[in-house]
Amino acid sequence: MEDLQQFFLTTYRVLLNYYGHQKWWPAETGFEVVVGAILTQNTSWSNVERAIINLKSTTALTPKSIFEIEHEKLKESIRPAGFFNQKADRLKGISKFILDELGGDIKNLSKLDLEVARNNLLSIKGVGDETADSILLYAVEMPSFVIDKYTIRMFGRVGVKGVKGYQSWRRLFMDNLPVDIGIYKEYHALIVEHSKNFCRSKPLCEDCPMENYCKKLF
DNA sequence: AGCCAGGCCTGCC
DNA sequence: GGCAGGCATGGC
Which residue among A38, A44, A62, A80 is least enclosed by CB atoms within 10 Å? Predict the structure, then answer.
């Protein structure tokens, strides 16, 4: 495709038309997005939902209450989300960071330059590229595009070549899309939704909305 | 029964 | 600077 901007926008419109508005991220507060972003690491969202329900029935979903909750009680609440030992540590750590560095509110990150805010998040143990961008975009509402393994797999199959590394993929999207938080939010959610149905290890391409683009490189 | 989930860290090379 | 191995539960 000669015009990348056209390609990324057209792909977005095809997905949006096919799947509709995804209403991401499902959470009541910015901090709930943070908690969900940690809990969903390599874990299905249905399991995360149970964990968040448990957690809400146990304590308030605020940095202070998560930081102060007894460690064993936290682990027990989030057990359905798996990896509960390290995720409990990570929730404690990011809660402490929000309390100590952000005056208790994750949204204070929006006062910083985007890349500075991003590097702040990346300095927290257990927060990698994707988790940082998810928090920036869905909790803080800063225009940071989220890349995940689905994005790389899907766009690789559709024909994007020679892009290597998380930051290169992120820049590719951000350099070729309008700086629009709504589009960033929706696009990532649509890629995830699409990837649940298509572009898996098996060539499940029947009735794929992307069949006009896809090189079917299996 | 095994593979996969809305990743990340560590240790080795 | 890349890459396997570990982390743990639930659905299909």
Answer: A44
Q: Residue A41, CA: closest nucleotide via C1'?
A: B7
pLDDT in tens, A129-185: 999 999 999 999 999 999 999 999 999 988 899 999 999 999 999 999 999 999 999
Q: Is residue A99 within 8 Å of residue A64, measured between CB atoms?
A: yes
| Global pTM value | 0.97
CA–C1' gap, A113 and C11, in angstroms? 41
CB-proximal positions of chain C, under 7 Å:
2, 7-11
Cβ A57 to strand B below 7 Å: no
Interatomic distance A5 CA / B6 C1' (Å): 25
Q: What is the CA A103 to C1' C7 distance in angstroms?
A: 31
C-alpha A104: how far from chain center:
22
Quickly list DSSP for A121-189.
Answer: HHTSTT--HHHHHHIIIIIS--------HHHHHHHHHHT--S--SHHHHHHHHHHHS-S-HHHHHHHHH
φ, ψ at A206 (rounded to 5°): -60, 125
Interatomic CA distance for residues A156 and A151, integer angstroms: 8
Contacts (Cβ under 8 Å, ≥6 apart) of A124: A90, A93, A94, A97
A200 touches strand C (CB under 7 A): no
